[in-house]
Amino acid sequence: MAPFQGPSREQLLTLLRRGTKESVTLGKYEPQAVVLCDGGEWKILALEEDPQLVAEMQERQRAEGYLMPEHYFSCKRPGRVLLSAPSRDAFIAAVEKMPWPFGPN
């Protein structure tokens, strides 16, 4: 599998300005965070490995004799809030100003 590459900051901003309502996964080399709209509030949530899912995946993949780092991607779930804003416009403004650890700007 190829490494994961999420959208750049500019690509995310374009999606938001176009009115996307879909969640967007961010990251460089692996999924790191997800953008969600929850009841009108926009958020970037860190993706964190779920230990239970990791254990199940490892058991399943070891039985098949095939374990790759990419298998861990499916074990990530939204966790702590990295950024939050009460509206799409406020969220766009916050994304424009925040440090961008998710790949190219």
Describe the structure.
The chain is an alpha+beta fold and 105 residues long. The chain has one domain (4-97). Helices cover 31% and strands 30% of the residues. The chain contains 3 helices and 6 strands, in the order βαββββαβα. The protein has helices at residues 9-17, 51-64, 88-97, and strands at residues 4-5, 24-26, 28-29, 33-38, 41-49, 76-85. The protein has a 4-stranded antiparallel β-sheet with strand order 2-4-5-6. α1 (9-17) runs antiparallel to α3. The longest helix is centred in the middle third of the chain and has 14 residues, at 51-64. The radius of gyration is 15 Å and the shape is elongated. The chain starts with a strand and ends in an 8-residue tail after the last helix. The model has no long low-confidence stretch (mean pLDDT 93).
Q: Which stretches of 5+ consecutive residues score pLDDT under 50?
A: none
Radius of gyration: 15 Å
N→C terminal distance: 24 Å
Name the structural class: alpha+beta
Instruction: Report strand order across the widest sheet.
Output: 2-4-5-6
- Please write the string of helix (H) and strand (E) elements: EHEEEEHEH
The number of strands is 6
Shape: elongated
Number of domains: 1
Strand content: 25-35%
| Mean pLDDT rating | 93
Please work out how many helical segments DSSP would assign.
3
Helix content: 25-40%
Largest sheet: 4 strands, antiparallel
